[in-house]
Amino acid sequence: VDSWRKVHVLPFRDSLGAGSVFDDYLKPHFSVKSHLLGLGSYFCARGCRFQVMAVDPPEEELRVVDRFTEVFSEGEPLTRVVARRIVLGAYNGGSDEQWRTKAEL
């Protein structure tokens, strides 16, 4: 499997601790082991959750991030949207297998 030339990743604000995003989280994570990731992929590095925001080359679906890949982490941390309550109810007029889901944010 080929490796990415460049990837841009951002951390989620609610999982980010103190310290440098690159030096304390990403550099140790990617220098030890290769990781198969694609655009939009989520991964966890030293307890912090990240999402892949951009990749080069852009036309590929999955490649490996390894010690030869340029990793960029500039930008504001991401805010995760979490549903406060999910209500499940039977769909009227349908069979028992049909369900309707309503998420209230």
Can I get a quick summary?
With 105 residues, the chain is mostly beta strands. It has one helix spanning 21-32, and strands at residues 6-11, 35-37, 42-45, 48-56, 63-65, 70-72, 85-90, 99-104.
Number of helices: 1
What composes the largest sheet?
4 strands, mixed
Please list the strands of the largest sheet in the order they lie side by side. Answer: 3-4-1-6
Q: Which spans of ≥5 residues are poorly predicted at pLDDT below 50?
A: 101-105
The level of helicity is 10-25%
Shape: globular
Mean pLDDT comes to 84
Cα(first) to Cα(last) distance is 40 Å
**What class do helices, strands and sheet pairing give?**
mainly beta
**Amount of beta strand:** 35-45%
Order of helices and strands: EHEEEEEEE
Radius of gyration: 18 Å
The total count of strands amounts to 8
Describe the fold and architecture.
By secondary structure, the protein is mainly beta. 11% of the residues lie in helices and 38% in strands. The strands form three sheets. It has a four-stranded mixed β-sheet. The protein has a two-stranded antiparallel sheet with strand order 2-5. It has a two-stranded antiparallel sheet with strand order 7-8. It is globular. It starts with 5 loop residues before the first strand and ends with a strand. The model is unreliable at 101-105 (pLDDT under 50).
Defining traits:
globular; 105 residues; disordered C terminus; 8 strands; 1 helix; 4-stranded mixed beta sheet; single chain; mainly beta; two-stranded antiparallel sheet
